[in-house]
C-alpha cells in the first residue's frame, strides 16, 4: 500500500513545508526586530538632536523657581519674627455640639496674630519634594 518511495517523498514534502514555514517565520521576526531597532535609532537621534538644541535656560528657570519657593515658603516665615513682622494664622473656632454630639453648631474662621516662627506641615512637604527631586535628578544623571 505505502511504499518506501512514497513515504520518503511525503516525508520530504512535509519536512520541506515545515522548514519553509520556520524560515518564513524567522524572517518575519528578523524584519520586525530590524524595524524596532530602526525606530529606536530614530528616537535616539531625535533625542540627541533635541539635547544639542537645549540651552541652559531651562535649568536656570527651574533653579529660579526653586529659589522663589524656598524664599516664600521657608525664608519669609522663618525670618519674619526676626524682622518684627507678625505672622497671621487662620483656624476654625467651634461653638460645640447639641444633643450629645448629634447636632454640630456652626463654626467661624478666626485669625490670630503670632509673633514667632510658624512651622507648618506644608513646609516640610515642599522641602522633601525639592530634596527628592534633586537627589532623583542627580542619581539619574549618574547612571
Structure description:
With 143 residues, the protein is α+β, with helices and mostly antiparallel strands. It has two domains: 1-54; 57-142, no CATH class. The protein has three helices and four strands; from the N terminus they run ααββββα. It has helices at 4-53, 57-79, 121-142, and strands at 87-94, 97-98, 103-104, 107-114. The strands form two sheets. A two-stranded antiparallel ribbon has the order 1-4. α2 packs antiparallel against α3. It is elongated, with a radius of gyration of 36 Å. The protein starts with a helix and ends with a helix.
How many domains would you count in the coordinates? 2
- Secondary-structure element series: HHEEEEH
How many helices?
3
- Strand arrangement across the biggest beta sheet: 1-4
User: What Rg, in angstroms, do the CA atoms define?
Assistant: 36 Å
Distance between the termini: 71 Å
Estimated structural class: alpha+beta
Poorly predicted spans: none
Q: Please state the overall shape, judged from the principal axes of the Cα atoms.
A: elongated
Estimate what percentage of residues fall within beta strands: 5-15%
Mean pLDDT: 79
Amino acid at each position: 500500500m505505502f511504499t518506501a518511495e512514497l513515504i520518503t517523498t511525503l516525508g520530504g514534502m512535509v519536512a520541506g513545508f515545515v522548514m519553509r514555514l520556520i524560515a518564513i517565520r524567522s524572517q518575519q521576526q528578523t524584519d520586525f526586530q530590524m524595524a524596532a531597532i530602526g525606530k529606536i535609532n530614530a528616537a535616539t537621534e531625535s533625542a540627541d538632536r533635541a539635547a544639542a538644541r537645549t540651552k541652559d535656560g531651562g535649568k536656570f528657570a527651574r533653579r529660579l523657581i526653586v529659589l522663589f519657593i524656598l524664599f516664600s515658603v521657608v525664608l519669609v516665615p522663618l525670618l519674619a519674627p526676626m524682622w518684627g513682622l507678625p505672622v497671621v494664622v487662620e483656624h476654625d473656632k467651634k461653638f460645640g455640639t447639641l444633643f450629645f454630639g448629634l447636632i454640630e453648631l456652626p463654626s467661624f474662621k478666626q485669625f490670630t496674630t503670632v509673633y514667632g516662627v510658624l512651622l507648618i506641615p506644608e513646609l516640610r512637604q515642599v522641602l522633601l519634594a525639592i530634596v527628592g527631586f534633586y537627589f532623583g535628578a542627580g542619581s539619574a544623571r549618574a547612571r
